[in-house]
Amino acid sequence: MLKIVPGAIVAAAAMFIIGFIAYGLLGSIPVGDVGDSEAAAIQSVLAANMDNDGARTVLVPSGSGEVQQRMYLDGPIAMIHYNPSGFEIGAGSTMLAGFIHMLISAVIIGAALFTLSGHVRDFGARVSIVALFGIAAAFYMNLGNPVWWHHDWIYHGFVFFIDALSFIVAGAIIARWFLPKHIDSDDRFGEE
């Protein structure tokens, strides 16, 4: 089981590189933007109408109560991911926290593969299992927002693709190089 820890580190590094290419080298993520004066006006309205209790997500209008339900039906509406403090894009602390997030995810992928490794010994079968679960997880995590909240499909589709790719690559790395070749019956989960 301990063999998956270095595998998870390598897998997380691969996930980080995929993210760097997708979100850094290829340009910004596909989100819309507004001009400088519009951004300043919206930022001013946010600062004047939202408190500084910390980062949160706010639905405007909320759809609660008769007045806001009517406003919600009539539109426009917005889901605001609000952070009163702001932060530096690409800050080292954010990159470190992101890598830790990827590392924890890779450890979970490795643990799942380890539980299967005594039963599923073929590399192709292991990767197909990781791919199907990776696609399912990315689908559920990212494409629910366009379905349930009517968000745009382009942004969420892009993030879905990058998340699924990251999951599959991480799992393939662990499945190929970091699972035991032979597992004693005492080290396995479940029965043959």
Outline:
Helices cover 64% and strands 5% of the residues.
Structural class: mainly alpha
Find the count of extended strands (DSSP E, 2+ residues): 2
Low-confidence stretches: none
Measured by DSSP, the beta-strand proportion falls in: 5-15%
Task: Provide mean pLDDT, rounded.
Answer: 90
Largest sheet: 2 strands, antiparallel
Helix content: 55-70%
Terminal CA distance reads 18 Å
State the shape.
elongated
Rg measurement, Å = 21 Å
Q: How would you describe this structure to a colleague?
A:
With 192 residues, this protein is mainly alpha-helical. 64% of the residues lie in helices and 5% in strands. It has a two-stranded antiparallel sheet with strand order 1-2. It is elongated, with a radius of gyration of 21 Å. The model has no long low-confidence stretch (mean pLDDT 90).
